[in-house]
């Protein structure tokens, strides 16, 4: 099985054990995707981790977008902005960097 | 895709079998496809939304927290059988306060949970396009 | 509505759950081990009334496979797979009480 900095990941690169997550792992995942994590990325990643802690699920993109709009304003809570940060999808790629499982209903 | 009415009947408690968590997964998938989703809790299913669940001692995921996310998924029709509650010595006050924000009413927070009779659930069921029992 | 039940009333409470909630126009089809509930036994009072109203069906193949054809509660209607399909068509939405 593949691993990132010693933490096991599944065939799509999501962490098997969410407890393995660290900032270094997120940085490494981003580097592998040719993304360098800015403060804006971290805002979303931290938001995703808090969301998971509260609700025990990775939110669907639609829900994530709405929730971010509510928390950080409409200029950030829109899919154009979120896709500019996470070109492979704020749900799929963002959740992966955040150490969360793939969002339910995400193909 | 045409919007269909889906109802999920939850009949079992949370942790003894996988039915409850599987049902919730399927519900979230349906919601991601913008369908009209409602949930009914009957028999031991009413235990799924009891307030104050804590799974620390059994090493399982406390997915009762996930029910609080349903409002954001626009799932706000949760029907609970009054008879099933009563048989188990429970009342509406024992249930989690699950809410949603009503888009058509200035985002006012409203309760998603309705305690209704079995006859009422039956009536709602008969209006669905699809019913899944878990 | 059509309600199918595929577990024995001795193993699961799905038949009871179903009967508790269905309306007067609904019918029940017993399939797989659900047909055990079509026999005269200590639980059969649950379905006797419904059967008398002509609202309980059992899948013939499953009844015969289990050798219980002669033990059925009165007025249970046996259907084959074609009959199953007809019931689905006739009653619109169906629920399987797994």
Strand order of the largest sheet of chain B: 6-3-2-1-7
Main sheet record of chain C: 5 strands, parallel
Helical amount among residues of chain B, as a percent range? Answer: 10-25%
Assign the CATH class of chain B: Alpha Beta
Order of helices and strands of chain C: EHEHEHEHE
Give the neighbour order of strands across the main sheet of chain C. Answer: 4-3-2-1-5
Mean pLDDT over all positions of chain B? 94
Largest protein-protein interface? B-C, 20 and 16 residues
Number of domains of chain B: 1
Cα-atom radius of gyration of chain C: 12 Å
CATH topology of chain B, what is it called? Hypothetical Protein Ychn, Chain: A
**Which of globular, elongated, flat, extended, rod-shaped describes the shape of chain B?**
globular
Count of β-strands of chain B: 7
CATH architecture of chain C: 3-Layer(aba) Sandwich
How many distinct helices of chain B?
3
CATH class of chain C: Alpha Beta
Topology:
The complex is a heterotrimer of chains A (107), B (134) and C (98).
Chain A: E1 3-4, E2 7-8, H1 23-32, H2 39-55, H3 61-72, H4 79-85, H5 90-97
Antiparallel strand pairs in A: 1-2
Chain B: E1 5-10, H1 19-32, E2 36-41, E3 78-81, H2 82-87, E4 99-102, E5 108-111, E6 113-116, H3 118-125, E7 130-133
Parallel strand pairs in B: 1-2, 1-7, 2-3, 3-6
Antiparallel strand pairs in B: 4-5
Chain C: E1 2-5, H1 14-21, E2 27-30, H2 45-52, E3 56-59, H3 60-65, E4 77-79, H4 81-91, E5 94-97
Parallel strand pairs in C: 1-2, 1-5, 2-3, 3-4
């Amino acid at each position: 099985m593949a691993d990132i900095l010693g933490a096991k990941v599944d065939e799509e690169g999501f962490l098997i054990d969410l407890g393995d997550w660290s900032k270094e792992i997120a940085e490494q995942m981003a580097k592998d995707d040719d993304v360098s994590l800015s403060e804006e990325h971290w805002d979303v990643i931290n938001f995703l981790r808090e969301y998971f802690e509260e609700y025990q699920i990775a939110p669907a993109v639609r829900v994530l977008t709405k929730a971010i709009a509510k928390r950080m304003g409409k200029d950030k809570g829109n899919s154009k902005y979120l896709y500019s940060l996470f070109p492979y999808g704020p749900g799929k790629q963002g959740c992966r960097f955040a150490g969360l499982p793939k969002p339910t209903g995400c193909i | 895709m045409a919007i269909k009415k889906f109802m999920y009947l939850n009949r079992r408690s949370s942790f003894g079998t996988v039915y409850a968590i599987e049902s919730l997964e399927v519900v979230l998938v349906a919601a991601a496809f913008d369908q009209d989703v409602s949930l009914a809790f009957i028999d031991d299913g009413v235990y799924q939304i009891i307030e104050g669940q804590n799974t620390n001692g059994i090493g399982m995921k406390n997915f009762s927290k996930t029910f609080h996310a349903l409002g954001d998924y626009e799932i706000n029709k949760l029907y609970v059988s009054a008879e099933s509650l009563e048989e188990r010595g429970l009342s509406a006050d024992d249930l989690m306060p699950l809410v949603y924000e009503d888009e058509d009413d200035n985002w006012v927070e409203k309760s998603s949970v309705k305690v209704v009779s079995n006859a009422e659930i039956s009536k709602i069921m008969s209006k669905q396009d699809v019913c899944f029992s878990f | 509505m059509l309600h199918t039940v595929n577990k024995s009333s001795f193993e699961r409470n799905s038949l009871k759950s179903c009967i508790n909630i269905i309306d007067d126009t609904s019918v029940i089809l017993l399939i797989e081990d659900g047909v055990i509930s079509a026999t005269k036994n200590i639980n059969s009072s649950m379905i006797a009334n419904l059967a008398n109203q002509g609202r309980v069906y059992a899948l013939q193949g499953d009844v015969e496979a289990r050798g219980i054809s002669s033990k059925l509660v009165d007025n249970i209607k046996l259907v084959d797979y074609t009959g199953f399909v007809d019931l689905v068509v006739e009653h619109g939405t169906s629920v399987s009480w797994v």
